[in-house]
C-alpha cells in the first residue's frame, strides 16, 4: 500500500467513480423519476398497438379429440423387425441363430394361414392330406399296448422262475429271481453297514488270554504309583479302623413333635437297654390287646347264646298261648258264646303283650 492510498489509521480511502462524482440522494431521485417516465411511455405504446389485428396462431388440440398420440408411429415400429424382439436364450442354454428363427416363424405363419383357410372352407382336402386317421392311430396304440403287455408278461415269467441263491445269513435258498435280487441287495447293505460300523473301532488286542489262567504279575505298579499308594495307606492308617458306630441323634432335628417319637441315647449300652424295654412294652401291649379281644369275642358269643335261648322260650310261650286260646275257643263254641268277639279280644291282648315285651 502506497502513501497515497493509505490514511492515518491504515483504512482505505473510498474510490472515486468514473465520472468523478459521488452518488447522492438527489441523483437517486432523478434516476427514479426518469425510469418511471420511460415505463409509462412503453405502456402507452403497447396499449395503442393492441387495437391492430393480431396474427393467427395455431389452434391447440383438444384433450378429447386425440386420446393417444403417436399411435401410428408405435404401430409401425412394432411391425419392423427389431433386434430387441429376437429370442436370445432358450431353456437348454443354446442361442438360436436368425435363420432358424425366421424359418420357424415362416412355418408357423403358413400353418396358421392353412388352418384359417380350412376353417373358412377355402381348402378342399380331397386326397385327405390334412385329415387325421384316428382309426390308424388307435390300431397303432393297441399294437404298442399289446407289445408292452407281452414284454411285461415275459419279465414276470423271468421273475417267477425258481432259482437258487445264498441269503444274507449264508444259507442256500430257493426262490424267484426277485427274491434272489432282494437277498443280494440286503447282503450288500449289511456288508456296507458292517464296514461302516467297524471302521473307527480299534483292532482287538492279540495278547488276550482265554480260560482259567493264573497271572502272577497282573498287578505290578511302577515306582511313582507305588509311592502314591503308600502315601494313601499312611493317611488311611491315621483314622480309626473300623470307624465308630454312628446312630441317629434326634436332638439335632425337630423330631419331638412327631407321632411316636422316642429320643434314644447316644451310649451303646443305654441305647440297647432302651430298645429292650420298648420290645417288652410292645409284647405286653400285644398280650393285653389279645386278652381284650378274647373277652369281647366271648361276650359276643354269650350274647348270641342268650338271644337264641330267649328266642326258643318265646316260641314255646307263643305255642302254649296258641294252644290255650284254641282250647278256650273250642270251649266257648260249645257253650254258645260268640266266637267272633272272643277272638277279637284275644288278638288285641296278644298285640298288647307283644308291645309290652318290645
Automatic annotation (TrEMBL):
Regions of compositional bias (Basic and acidic residues) in chain numbering: 246-256, 268-302, 345-358
Full protein name: Uncharacterized protein
Biased composition (Polar residues): 90-99
Sections of the chain in a coiled coil: none
Claim: Acyltransferase is one of the keywords in the record: no
Keyword terms: Coiled coil
Source organism per UniProt: Salinomyces thailandicus
Magnesium recorded as keyword: no
Lineage: Eukaryota, Fungi, Dikarya, Ascomycota, Pezizomycotina
